[in-house]
Amino acid sequence: MVNKNYVSLKNYLKAFFYFLLITILLSFSTVVLHELGHFIFGLISGCHSVKIILFETKLMTTYTEMECPPTTKTTLLGLSGMFVVIPLVILLFLVGKGADKYLAIIMLGFNLTISIWDLEKYLNIQNAEIFGVVGIVLIVLGEILLIEKSIF
Amino acid sequence: MIFTHVHPILIYITIVFSTLVFAFLVALKRKRRSTNLILLSSKVKENVIKTIDGIAKPFEIAEIDEVKALVNNYKKCIYIVDEKEDLKKQIEKLKGIMNNFGDFYILNLNTKKGSHLLNKKLRGKIYNVRKVEELREVIPSLLSK
C-alpha cells in the first residue's frame, strides 16, 4: 500500500489505480447482484426463459430478460433489482467495521444509479433521474470516506 | 420483458471514473488542510526526518520537485535547505510554491552568507541549524507551534 509519510506523484497514482480497481469491481458486482434480484424474483413469479445478459452489442448494457404471465405484478418485478443488493448493503453496514461501511454506501449509490429505468418504466415514477443523482452523491461520499479511511 | 439499467456501458464507465477522480481530489484536499509538510531538496536528509520521534501532529515528507506537480494546500511547511545544492536555484524553486502554505519555515544548514541571501529573497521565517542532527529537535518544536 501507499507510504503514509512520503508524498510523491507516483504514490498518489498508485493509490488512484488501486481505488479505480476496487470501484470497477464493486460497480460490476453491484450490477450483477441487481440483475440477480430480477432473475430470482422472475423465477418465483412464474416467469420463464429468464436470463441475465451480461453484455450484448444491441443495447450495449447488462440486463435481465424474461417472459412473464399477464398476471405478474410488474411493480414488484421492477423493484426486485433491489431485493438482493439492499439486504447486502444493510448487512455490510451493520456488521462491517471501518471501511466496509463505506463500501456499503458506494454499493447503494450504484444500485440507485442503475435502477432509474426500472423505476421509471415499472413503477411509473416521474423524474426518476433524481434517484440517479442521489446515487451519484452517495457514490462520491462513500469513495471520499473510503479513500480517507484507507490510505490517508 | 426486459429489466435493465439505463446507461450504456460507456456512460457507466464514465460515471465510475469521473466520480472516483472527483472523490480522490476532494479527499486529497481535505487531508492536506490538516497536514504539515516537510520539504526536502535532497534524499540525504530523508532518513534523519523519518527517525524523528515525538511529533504529535501528522506530517508528510516530499521533495521540492515533486511538490510542483501536486495540489499545494498544506497547513504548514518546513523547508530544509540543502547545503550541497546551489542556494539560488533552491530560492527560485521556493518562490514558486511558498505562497501556497499558511506558515512557511526555512531551516538553513548553510553558511551565514546563505542566511543573508535567504532573508533577502524569501518571506518565510528562517532558522539557522548548525548540524543535520539538530533538525531532530527543531522540527518537532516548529510543528507543534
Structural notes for this entry:
The complex is a heterodimer of chains A (152) and B (145). By secondary structure, chain A is mainly alpha-helical. Chain A has one domain (20-150). Helices cover 66% and strands 7% of the residues of chain A. In chain A, helix 1 (9-44) packs across helix 3, helix 1 crosses helix 4 and helix 3 (82-95) runs antiparallel to helix 4. Chain A is elongated. The model of chain A has no long low-confidence stretch (mean pLDDT 86). With 145 residues, chain B is an alpha/beta fold. Chain B has one domain: Rossmann fold (3-Layer(aba) Sandwich), CATH 3.40.50. In chain B, 44% of the residues lie in helices and 19% in strands. Chain B has six helices and six strands, in the order E-H-E-H-E-H-E-H-E-H-E-H. Chain B has helices spanning 9-33, 46-50, 64-67, 87-97, 112-121, 135-143, and strands at residues 2-4, 36-40, 59-63, 76-80, 103-108, 125-128. Chain B has a five-stranded parallel beta sheet with strand order 3-2-4-5-6, sandwiched between helices. In chain B, helix 4 (87-97) links the parallel strand 4 and strand 5. The longest helix of chain B is centred in the N-terminal third of the chain and has 25 residues, at 9-33. The radius of gyration of chain B is 20 Å and the shape is elongated. The A-B interface holds A 4-9, 12, 15-16, 19-20, 23-24, 27, 31, 34-35, 38, 47, 55, 59-68, 74, 77-78, 80-81, 113-118, 120, 122, 132, 136, 139-140, 143-144, 147-148, 152 and B 1-10, 12, 15-17, 19-20, 22-24, 26-28, 30-31, 37, 46, 50, 59-63, 66-67, 69-70. Strand 2 (63-67) of chain A pairs antiparallel with strand 1 of chain B.
